[in-house]
Design goal:
Radius of gyration: 19 Å
Structural class: mainly alpha
Shape: globular
Number of helices: 10
Strand content: under 5%
Number of domains: 1
Length: 260
Amino acid sequence: MLKILKYSIYDLLRSRWSYVYFIFYLLIGFVLLFLNNDINKAVITLMNIIIVLTPLIGTIFGVMYYYNSKEFTELLLAQPIKRNKIFMGQYIGISLSLTLSLVLGLGIPFVLYGLFRSTAIFDFSLLILVGSFLNFIFVALAYNIALSTENKIKGFGYAILMWLFLAVIYDGLFMISLMLFNEYPLDNFSLIATMFNPIDLSRILILLKLDISALLGYTGAVFKDFFGTNKGFFLSFLVLCLWIIIPLFRMSRKLRKKDF
C-alpha cells in the first residue's frame, strides 16, 4: 500500500492540475492579504472560499483519478495484491497531495505576511485542518461514486450533483424546513441536520472558534448555545471523522463484491 501511495503522490505531483491548484491558492492568499492587509480579516474571507471550493476540487480530482488510472489499477489487480491496499493507497495519495497543495498554497503567503506573529495563527490552523478534512471526505465520497458507476460521464455527473446538493441545495431545503415549521421546537432537528452535511458542519466548527456572532446562522447559534464552544468543537471533530470512516467502510465492502 505504501508503494502505491508513493506512486499516486508522485503521479499527481507530475500532473499540471496539481500545480494549477497550488498556484490558485497561492494567488488567493496573496490577493486577500493585499486587499485586507489584516490576517484576521483574511482568515474570515478565506473560510467561505475553502468551505465551498475544497470539496469541489476533492470531488473532481477523486473521480478523475479513478477513471484515468483504471487500466493501471486493473493491472495491479492482476497481481497478488489485496484490493483494499490498492485503493486505499490511491485514496490516501490523492487526499495527501490535495492537502499538501492547500497547506503550501495558503501557508506561504500567510507566513510571509507574519502569521507566526499574529493572533490569528490558531484560527488559520483550524481553517487548514478543516480544509484537510474536507479533502479526505470528498475524495472518499468521489471514490464511492466512481466505484458504483462504470460510465465516466455518469460518474462525473453524479459527483458534481453530490457536491451541488451538499454545498447549495441542502442549505436551501434546510432553511425552507425551518420556515415551514418555525412554530415547533427545532433545536434537535437543526443539530442532526447539520451533522448530515460536512460542509455546514465545517463552517459551524470554524465559526464557533472564531466566535463571530454576526455570521452564526440559526444552526450555529443552537450549536453554540446547546453544546458550548468546546463541546461543539469536539463533537464536530468527531462527526467529521465519521464522515471519513463511513465512506471508507462502504468502499471496502464495495471492493469485495465488485467484479473488475
